[in-house]
Here is the input.
Amino acid sequence: MSDFAEIILEGKSYKLPIVEGTENEKAIDINSLRAESGYITLDSGYKNTGATESAITFLDGEEGILRYRGYPIEQLAEKSSFIEVAYLLIYGSLPTEEQLNDFTNKIKIHTLVNEDMRKILDGFPSAAHPMGILSALVSSLTAFYPESLNPNQKKEELDLSIVRLMAKMPTIAAWSYKNSIGHPVNYPKNKLDYCSNFLHMMFAYPTEDYEINPVVVNALNKLLILHADHEQNCSTSTVRLVGSANASLYSSVSAGISALWGPLHGGANQAVIEMLEQIIADGGDSKKFIAKAKDKNDPFRLMGFGHRVYKNFDPRATIIKKAADEVLTALGVKDPILDIAKELEEAALTDPYFVDRKLYPNVDFYSGIIYRALGIPTDMFTVMFALGRLPGWIAQWKELREQKEPIGRPRQVYTGEQERNYVPMNER
Ligand code: CMC
Here is the structure.
C-alpha cells in the first residue's frame, strides 16, 4: 500500500499521508491541505470524514461488527453487566473484581441528588418531555459541583465527576418521569444494583414497593450495554465538539442528550412505537405505510429502518430482536404492536426499495418494543437510550481531553451574496 495519497489541484500535486487504524481502516490525512493548497474538503453530514482517531469502539457497517475496546458486543451483551461495560469503555480494560466492586460501590453512594435539584424539577410543567428535563438537570449539575467546570481536573477529581454523573443520571431520569405523571419521586435504594435501583425509582409508589423481576432487570442490563457506545455518531460527536471548547463533562453530556433527542437519532425509538400505533389506529395496513415511505413526495420515513453506517445488518438489532422475543414470552406479554412490527419488517425486507438502499431494521426498531413490555412509557424511551449511552459519552469526552484535541471548528464553502453596500430604508 502506498503511504501517501496524491491530489492534483490546478496542475500542482500535493502528497497527503495515509493513516491506517488497527483494523486496517484507511484514511487520508488532510491536515496540511488547506495551508498548502488553499482548498478545503466538502462532506455534508460528515459521511466520509473522520473527526478523530479513537481507541474506544470499532464498528464495521458492512460486516455488521461492533466491538467495545476490542470485545464483541455479542459477548458483552451475553456475559457482562452494564457497570462493567461502563468501566471498560471509560478506563479501557475490563475491571478486576476489586476495581469493579470499588466502581460499583462509589456509584452507589452518589445516587442521591441535591434536594435543590428537586426545586428545579418542580418548576417544569408536567407536560415537559423528559429528555428536555434530563438535559437541563445534567447541565445544572455544574451548579452543584462547580469544581467539575474545570476541564483539567486531576485524575481523582475527574473520577469523582464521572462517578457522580453515572450515579445521578438514573435518579434524574426516573424523577423526570415521576414529574411527568405528577407523582412524588422515589429516592434511590443503594442496596439495589444499578438497573434494579432505576426500576425501583421509576415504578415504586409511596403506597407500594416495586417488586424486582430478574427478567426485567436482565433485559434492561442488556439494552443499556447495547447502547453504551457507537463511536462518532451525532450525539457523541456533539459531546466531543462541545468538549473540545474546554466545556465541562456535564455540559458536554447535556449537549449530547439534546442531540440524541432528535427522531433521526435516539428519538427514533419513541417514533417507532408512535408509528406502529398510528398504523394500528389507521386500520393496520402496513403496506400503505411502506408505500408512503417510498413516496418521495411524502416526508414519511419508516422509523427504525436504515442506518448511516450499517449497510448490511445492525448487530445490536439482531441481539435485541432475540431478547424482545424472550422478554415478551417470559413476561407473557401479547402486544398487537409486535404483530404489526413483524409484518412491517417482513414487507420492508422483501421490498426492492428497502433492499436496494440497504435499509434494515436498526436497534431502535426493537428496543421500543422491549421498553414497552417492561412498562416504560413511550416518551421515556429516548431517556433509556441516554442512560445507556452515558458511559460512551464519558469515555469519548475523556479521550478527547487526553488526546489534547484542538477545538472543533469546521470550515464552509460560502454561497451567499458578495460584498454589497448597505441600502437605506427608503431606497429598499
Ligand atoms: N424510510 C424510507 N426511506 C429511507 C429511510 C427510511 N427509514 N432511511 C433512508 N431512506 C432512503 C432515503 O430516502 C434515501 O433514498 P434516495 O437514495 O432515493 O434518496 C436513501 O434511503 C439513503 O438515505 P439517507 O437519508 O441518505 O441515509 P442517511 O445515512 O443520511 O440516514 C438515517 C440514516 C438513520 C438517518 C435514515 O435511515 C433514517 O432517517 N432512518 C429512520 C430514523 C431512524 O430509525 N433512526 C435511528 C438510527 S439507529 C439509532 C442511532 O444509532 O441513532
